[in-house]
Specification:
The complex is a heterotrimer of chains A (567), B (198) and C (393). Chain A has a single domain, classed as Cytochrome c oxidase-like, subunit I domain (Cytochrome C Oxidase, Chain A), CATH 1.20.210. Chain A is 63% helix and 0% strand. Chain A is built from 16 helices and no strands. Chain A is globular. Chain B has 6 helices and no strands. Chain B is elongated, with a radius of gyration of 21 Å. Chain B starts with 19 loop residues before the first helix and ends with a helix. In chain C, a hairpin with a 7-residue loop joins strand 6 and strand 7. Chain C folds into 3 domains: 84 residues; 115 residues, Immunoglobulin-like; 119 residues, Immunoglobulin-like, CATH 2.60.40.420. The chains are: A mainly alpha (567), B mainly alpha (198), C alpha+beta (393). Chains in contact: A-B, A-C. Chains A and C meet through helix 3, helix 7, helix 8, helix 9 and helix 10 of A and helix 1, helix 2, helix 3 and strand 9 of C.
Chain lengths: 567, 198, 393
C-alpha cells in the first residue's frame, strides 16, 4: 500500500486529469457559501462528521467533569444540580449529536460511492436533514445559556437521557430543561428520519448497472437495515415526546399519574425507541468492520449471505427486546421471561457475525495498519460487551445489575469499545479518500495504544463498583461502601482517553495540510469508492460503473481469479 | 468503473430499479405508521382508566358522514390517477377537486364534532385521560389530512395553471399513495375510537 | 512484532482486573451483590455464578481463537501475494448457529426457573407486611399489621431456617419513580406512582444492611439512602411496641383532668379515628381550643413544651405527623419516633442535636434540593423545636 499516488489499475479512469475543468470557488466567503448551500452527499457527509467530532469533544469534556466529581466521595466539585445536567447532556449529546450524525455522515459519504451512484436519491432532502439536525444540536446547547444563564442554574436538561416520566411532568420539572430536551431531540429525529428515507431510496433505486442487491457491499446492506430501524424506532420517541409536550403545555394527562396516567407507559415507549437506537448506532460499526477487516486480511468477507441474513435478523429481533431495560419495573414473570428469551436470541445472529469476522481473519495475511488495529481491538471488546449483555439479559440477575455501574460499563463497552473504536478505524481508512491525504501512521499507533489503555483502565474497572452495589446517576457516594479506589482508577482512565483523542484531532488537522498524498486506492481495496480519485470529483465517477461481482476492483486487479467466476 | 465484460445482463433494457418516489413514500408511511401506532397503543391502554369526566360511551357519536366522505375520496383519487396517466387533464382536475372537497367535508365534520364535545360535553384535552388521548389521536390524524390537502391544493393550482402534464403522473401517484395511507389510518383510528373504545 | 504487545496487553489487563477483583471483594463492601444474606439474593447469586462461568468459557474460547488468528495469520514481511480466497461454508455457519442456540436454551431455562421461583413465591401466613412509599428524597415505611409508620430506617425480624419470617413488601411512590435496592438482601424493585409492585426478602442474619435508591429521581437521588435493621425476634417486638406508642400533647391545657393525649391514636390511614377520638374528649385536641403556653417567660425558654408550641403553630404540622398530637401531615416523614432513628434525611447525616438544629434551620445546607423548605424561623425557635424533637424517642 504505497503512500504516494498509486497508479490506478488498468481500466479505471479516476478523473484526476479532468478536474482542472471544474471551476473553483474564489474567496473564502464563496467557499463557506458553497459548503452551506451544498447538496453534494460527500460534502454533507463531511459536515455531519465534523459536527459530530466537535460534539464528541464537548460531551467528552462533560464526562471528564463527571469523573472529577466522582473522584472522592462527598466531593463538591460541582453541585448536584450541575452534575445532573452534566450526565444528562453527556448521554444525550453522545447518542444524538455524536453517534447518529457521525454514522449518518459516513453513510451519506459512502453509500452512493459504493453502489456506483452519483449522489443520494434526494440531495435536497439530504441537506435539509443535516441542517435541521444541526439546528437541533444548537438548540440543545442553547439551553445552558437560556433560562437563568451561564452563571445561574441554566436550563440544560437534567432529567437523565431517558427522561423518565413523571419526573419530566410539569409538577416535578417546572423549568424548561425538559422542554429543551424534548424539542431538540424531536427536531433531531426529523432529520434522522429524512436521512433514513434517503438511504433506503438510494440503496434500492440508485444502484449502478449489474449491482444487484446480492452484489452491493455489506456496508449499504447494513445502512439499509439501519434506515429501516430508524423509521420504525425513532418515531415512537417522537410520539412520546409529543405526548410529553402535550402534558406539559396543553394540560394533557398521558403521564400524569394523579389522573390515571402511567409512568410505565413512558418507559415502554422510550425503550421501544431506545433499544433499536443502540442497534442503529452499532450496525454501522459492524458495516465498517465488514469493509475494513477483509481488506486488511486480504480475503473476501467470510459468508456474505449469512452476514446479510444476520444483519437483517439483528435489525428485526432488536425490535422485540426493549423491555430488558425494564426488568425491575414490575412486569409479570411471564413478561420478564419473554424479554429474557428475545434478548438472548439476538445474540445468535450477532455471534454469527463475530465468528464470520474471525473466519475472515483465518487463513488471511493480516496487515496491521491503524484501521486494522482498531478493528482488532473492536473484535475483542465486542465479544466482552456482548457477553456482559448476556449477563444483563438474565432477568433475575438483572434485578441486581440494573441501574448500577455494571450497566454503565456494559453500554460504554459497546458505545466506546465497539462503536467509537470502529469510528476511529473508519476515519483512518476513509480519510485518505475524503481528503486525498493519509493520516500519520505513527501518531495513529500512539492514538491507538493510548486509547486501548485508557479504555480498559476505565471500563474494565467500572464493572466492579456496579457489582459492589453502586447505582448510576448519583452525584456522590458514601465513603464506607468500598467504591472510592475503583472510581479513582476509572477517572484516571478517562483522562488517558482524552489525551488519545487530542492526539487524534491533531493528526487529522495536521495531515490535512501535510499528510502524504493518498491516490485513489492507498489500501489496495476492492469496492467502488476506491476506483475514483481521492477526493472524488463532484460527479463521483467519470463514467457510470458497471459491475459483475461483489468486488469489482478485485476482478480488475486479478483477472486470472475474478469473483465473477464464483457467482 | 469496471470494464470487465458483463456476463449476466443480456440486453440494455434489463436493468430495472424501483422508483425513488415510491420507496421514499413507503419509508415515510412506515415512520408515520409507527407514530400512529404509539398513539393508538396509548389510547387502548388508557381505556377505562379515567379518574373522572365524560366517558367515550357518553359523548361520542359515530361520524358516519365524514367517514364515508374520507374513504370514498380514496376511490376518487384513483380516478384522478387514472385520468392523468391517460393525459385526460380535464377529468383529472375534476376528480382531484372532488377528492379535495371530500377531504374538506371530513375536516369540517371533525370540527363540528369537536365543537360539540368542547362546548356541550365539556370534554377538552385537559379534562381527563380520555380527552387527552382522543384529541391527540384524532388530531394527529386530522393534521395529516390537512397536510395532504395542502399538497393536493398545490397540485390543483399547478393543474389549473397548465403546468401539470401527464409525464408528471408518477409524482401524482406518490402523493396519492400518501392520501391512501391517510385513509387507511382513519380506518384504524375509527375502529379504535368509535368501535372498540365505546 | 506488533502482535506480541497486543497479547501482553491483554494479559496485563486481565491480571489487573483479577487483582482489582480480589482487593475490592476483601469483604469490606457492605453492598456487594455477591454477599448474600437473604434467599432471593442467594438464588440470584447462584444464577449469576452459573452465567458467569458460561460466559467466561465463551470469552476464553473466542479470544484465544482471535489471538491465535492474529498471530498465525499475520502478513510476513515483503509478502505481497494474496491468500486463497474463501467465501464461506454452510456447515461452519450452521455449527456456529446451532451451538449458540443450545447455549441460549440452557441459559434461558435456568433463568426462568429462578425468575419464577423468586417473583411468584407464595406469601406465608406469618410474613411481615411492609408498605414502602417512595418520596423525593426519603422512604416511608408502614407496617399495616402493627399500625406503625416510620421513615428511612426499616426494621425487620431475622428469618432463620427453623423460624422463617420473610417480609413481603408492597412498593409504590408518592411522586416520581424510585427503586428499592439493598444488594445484600435482594435485587431491586422499582417504586412507581399509581402502581403497586411487590417483592420479598428474608434476612438470615441480624445486623445493618445498607442500600440506596436506584432510579434517578431528581436532585438528591444520590442521598436517598436505605438502612435495614434486622433484629432478633425479641428486639423486633420491642421496637414495634415502642413505635406504636404515641407522643403526649405537651401544650394541652388540662381541663377536668381528663384532657390528655390520645394514647390509642394509630396513624396508619386512621385520620378518622384521631378526629373521632379527639371529638369524644372533653377538650377537643385542636389548636384553636388548646391552651397556649402559659406565660411569656415560658415561651422564651428552650423547652420541649415551647418547642411543640412553635412546631404546631408554624407550618410544620402541614407536612409532618407526630402520633398523639395534632400533627398529622403526610407530606414529609413521620416524626413520632424521630429519635429512634440513627440518621436524618434518609441517611444524609447522623441523628445528632447539631445536625437536627442545622436541618431545621436550613435543610438545603445539608441536602440541597430537598423538598423541605427553610422556614426562616428565629434561632430561638429553631432551638425550641429541636428541644421538642429530641423528646420524640
Amino acid at each position: 500500500m504505497g503512500t504516494d499516488s498509486m497508479p490506478a489499475p488498468q481500466g479505471i479512469e479516476t478523473g484526476l486529469d479532468r478536474t482542472e475543468a471544474v471551476s473553483r470557488p474564489g474567496t473564502y466567503l464563496e467557499l463557506i457559501h458553497s459548503w452551506i448551500v451544498t447538496v453534494d452527499h460527500k460534502r454533507l457527509g463531511i459536515l455531519y462528521i465534523c459536527y459530530a467530532l466537535v460534539f464528541l469533544l464537548v460531551a467528552g469534556s462533560e464526562a471528564l467533569l463527571i469523573r472529577i466529581q466522582l473522584f472522592y466521595p462527598h466531593n463538591n466539585f460541582v453541585s448536584p444540580y450541575t452534575f445532573n445536567r452534566l450526565f444528562t447532556m453527556h448521554g444525550t449529546t453522545m447518542v444524538f449529536l455524536v453517534g447518529m450524525p457521525i454514522l449518518f455522515g459516513f453513510g451519506n459519504y459512502l453509500v452512493p460511492l459504493m453502489i456506483g451512484a452519483r449522489d443520494m436519491a434526494f440531495p435536497r432532502l439530504n441537506a435539509f436533514s443535516f441542517w435541521i439536525s444541526a439546528l437541533a444540536g444548537l438548540l440543545l446547547y442553547y439551553s445552558f445559556i437560556g433560562g437563568v444563564g451561564l452563571y445561574g442554574t441554566g436550563s440544560a436538561p437534567d432529567v437523565a437521557w431517558f427522561a423518565y416520566a413523571p419526573l419530566t411532568e410539569k409538577a416535578f420539572s417546572p423549568g424548561h430543561s425538559t422542554d429543551y430536551w424534548a424539542v431538540a431531540i424531536l427536531a433531531n429525529g426529523i432529520g434522522s428520519i429524512g436521512t433514513a428515507i434517503n438511504i433506503l431510496a438510494t440503496v434500492f433505486c440508485m444502484r449502478c448497472k449489474g449491482m444487484t442487491l446480492s452484489r452491493i457491499p455489506l456496508l449499504p446492506w447494513l445502512y439499509a437495515t439501519v434506515s429501516f430501524l430508524v423509521l420504525v424506532a425513532v418515531s415512537p420517541l417522537t410520539a412520546a415526546q409529543a405526548m410529553l409536550l402535550i402534558d406539559r403545555y396543553l394540560g394533557g394527562h398521558f403521564f400524569d399519574t394523579q389522573m390515571g396516567g402511567s409512568a410505565i407507559l413512558w418507559a415502554h415507549f422510550f425503550w421501544i425507541f431506545g433499544h433499536p437506537e443502540v442497534y442503529v448506532l452499532v450496525l454501522p460499526a459492524f458495516a465498517f468492520a465488514n469493509e475494513i477487516i477483509p481488506v486488511f486480511s486480504r480475503k473476501a468477507i467470510f459468508g456474505y449471505p449469512a452476514m446479510v441474513a444476520a444483519s437483517v435478523g439483528i435489525g428485526f429481533i432488536s425490535l422485540g427486546v426493549w423491555a430488558h431495560h425494564m426488568f425491575t419495573i414490575g412486569m409479570t414473570s411471564f413478561g420478564n421471561a419473554f424479554f429474557t428469551l428475545s434478548t438472548m436470541l439476538v445474540s445468535i445472529p450477532t455471534g454469527i457475525k463475530t465468528f464470520n469476522w474471525l473466519a475472515t481473519l483465518w487463513g488471511g495475511k493480516i496487515r496491521f495498519a491503524t484501521p486494522m488495529l482498531f478493528s482488532i481491538a473492536f473484535l475483542f471488546q465486542w465479544v466482552i460487551a456482548g457477553l456482559t449483555g448476556i449477563m444483563l439479559s438474565v432477568s433475575a440477575w438483572n434485578w441486581q445489575l440494573h441501574n448500577s455501574y455494571f450497566v454503565v460499563a456494559h453500554f460504554h463497552y459497546v458505545l466506546v469499545g465497539a462503536i467509537v473504536f470502529m469510528i476511529f478505524a473508519a476515519i483512518y481508512y476513509w480519510y485518505p479518500k475524503m481528503t486525498g491525504r493519509m493520516l500519520d501512521e505513527r501518531l495513529g499507533k500512539l492514538h491507538f495504544w493510548l486509547m486501548v489503555i485508557g479504555f480498559h483502565v476505565t471500563f474494565d474497572v467500572m464493572h466492579f463498583p456496579g457489582l459492589l452495589g453502586m447505582p448510576r446517576q448519583i452525584f456522590t457516594y458514601e465513603p464506607d461502601r468500598g467504591w472510592t479506589l475503583l472510581n479513582q482508577i476509572v477517572s484516571v482512565g478517562g483522562f488517558i482517553q482524552a489525551i488519545a483523542v487530542l492526539i487524534f484531532v491533531y493528526n487529522m488537522v495536521h495531515s490535512y495540510f501535510r499528510g502524504a498524498l493518498a491516490g485513489p486506492d492507498p489500501w489496495d481495496a476492492w469496492t467502488l469508492e476506491w476506483s475514483t480519485a481521492s477526493p472524488p470529483p463532484a460527479y463521483n465517477f467519470v463514467v457510470d460503473p458497471v459491475v459483475a461481482s461483489r468486488r469489482p476492483l478485485w476482478d480488475l486487479k486479478h483477472p486470472e481469479d475474478p469473483d465473477s467466476a464464483f457467482e | 468503473m469496471a470494464t470487465v465484460p458483463l456476463e449476466h445482463l443480456k440486453d440494455e433494457g434489463e436493468w430495472r430499479l424501483p422508483s425513488r418516489g415510491m420507496v421514499a413514500m413507503a419509508g415515510l408511511i412506515t415512520a408515520e405508521s409507527s407514530i400512529f401506532l404509539i398513539f393508538v397503543v396509548a389510547y387502548l391502554y388508557y381505556l377505562g382508566r379515567d379518574v373522572n369526566g365524560p366517558t367515550p360511551k357518553e359523548v361520542l357519536e359515530i361520524p358516519y358522514f365524514g367517514t364515508v366522505c374520507l374513504l370514498s375520496s380514496s376511490g376518487f383519487i384513483m380516478l384522478a390517477e387514472r385520468a392523468i396517466e391517460h393525459g385526460k387533464m380535464a377529468a383529472f382536475r375534476l376528480w382531484w377537486g372532488v377528492t379535495i372537497l371530500l377531504g374538506a367535508i371530513f375536516l369540517a365534520d371533525t370540527g363540528m364534532e369537536w365543537r360539540k364535545l368542547i362546548t356541550r360535553d365539556h370534554l377538552t384535552i385537559h379534562t381527563n385521560l380520555f380527552g387527552t388521548c382522543f384529541y391527540s389521536l384524532v388530531g394527529l390524524h386530522a393534521s395529516h389530512v390537512i397536510v395532504g390537502m395542502l399538497m393536493m391544493l398545490l397540485t390543483l393550482a399547478f393543474a389549473l395553471t397548465g403546468h401539470l402534464r401527464s409525464e408528471h403522473s408518477y409524482r401524482v401517484k406518490v402523493l396519492a399513495l400518501y392520501w391512501h395511507f391517510v385513509d387507511a389510518v382513519w380506518v384504524v383510528v375509527f375502529t379504535v375510537v368509535y368501535v372498540v373504545g365505546r | 512484532m506488533k502482535t506480541r504487545p497486543i497479547i501482553c496487553r491483554r494479559w496485563i489487563v486481565l491480571t489487573a482486573q483479577l487483582l482489582a477483583c480480589v482487593s475490592s471483594w476483601g469483604g469490606q463492601s457492605s453492598t456487594s451483590i455477591f454477599s448474600n444474606k437473604s434467599t432471593p439474593a442467594h438464588q440470584l447469586n447462584d444464577l449469576s455464578l452459573f452465567v458467569l462461568s458460561i460466559t467466561g468459557l465463551i470469552f476464553v474460547g473466542v479470544s484465544s481463537l482471535l489471538v491465535y488468528a492474529i498471530v498465525k495469520f499475520r502478513a510476513r514481511k515483503g509478502d505481497t501475494t494474496e491468500p486463497p480466497q474463501v467465501f464461506g461454508s454452510m456447515q461452519i455457519e450452521l455449527s456456529w448457529t446451532i451451538i449458540p442456540i443450545l447455549i441460549i436454551v440452557v441459559l434461558f431455562l435456568t433463568t426462568a426457573r429462578v425468575l419464577f421461583s423468586v417473583q411468584d413465591a407464595q406469601k406465608p401466613k406469618d410474613a411481615v407486611d411492609v408498605i414502602v412509599v417512595g418520596h423525593q428524597f426519603w422512604w416511608e415505611f408502614r407496617y399495616p399489621q402493627y399500625n406503625v409508620v416510620t421513615a428511612n430506617e426499616l426494621h425487620l425480624p431475622v428469618s432463620t431456617k427453623e423460624a422463617p419470617r420473610p417480609a413481603f413488601m408492597k412498593l409504590t411512590s408518592a411522586d416520581v419513580m424510585h427503586s428499592f435496592w439493598v444488594p445484600q438482601l435482594d435485587g431491586k424493585t422499582d417504586l412507581l406512582p399509581n402502581r403497586v409492585n411487590e417483592m420479598w426478602i428474608d434476612p438470615q442474619e441480624t445486623g445493618l444492611f445498607v442500600g440506596q435508591c436506584a432510579q434517578f429521581c431528581g436532585a438528591e437521588h444520590a442521598k436517598m439512602l436505605l438502612r435495614v435493621y434486622v433484629d432478633t425476634p425479641e428486639k423486633f417486638k420491642e421496637w414495634i411496641a415502642s413505635q406504636q406508642k404515641t407522643q403526649p400533647e405537651l401544650t394541652m391545657v388540662s381541663m377536668d383532668g381528663q384532657a390528655k393525649a390520645n394514647e390509642t391514636a394509630p396513624n396508619v390511614g386512621n385520620q378518622g379515628r384521631v378526629v373521632q377520638t379527639a371529638m369524644n374528649k372533653v377538650s377537643p385536641n385542636s389548636p384553636t381550643t388548646r391552651g397556649n403556653v402559659s406565660s411569656l417567660g415560658e415561651s422564651q425558654e428552650i423547652s420541649a413544651r415551647a418547642g411543640q408550641y412553635v412546631f404546631e403553630h408554624e407550618a410544620c404540622i402541614s407536612c409532618h405527623a407526630v402520633a398523639g398530637t395534632v400533627a398529622t401531615g403526610r407530606y414529609g416523614p413521620d416524626l413520632t419516633h424521630l429519635m429512634s432513628r440513627e440518621t436524618l434525611a434518609a441517611g444524609a447525616v447522623p441523628n445528632t442535636k447539631e445536625n437536627l438544629l442545622g436541618w431545621i434551620g436550613d435543610p438545603n445546607q445539608i441536602k440541597p434540593g430537598s423538598l423541605m423548605p427553610a422556614m426562616h424561623l428565629s434561632d430561638r425557635q429553631n432551638q425550641q423545636i429541636t428541644a421538642y424533637l429530641l423528646t420524640l424517642k
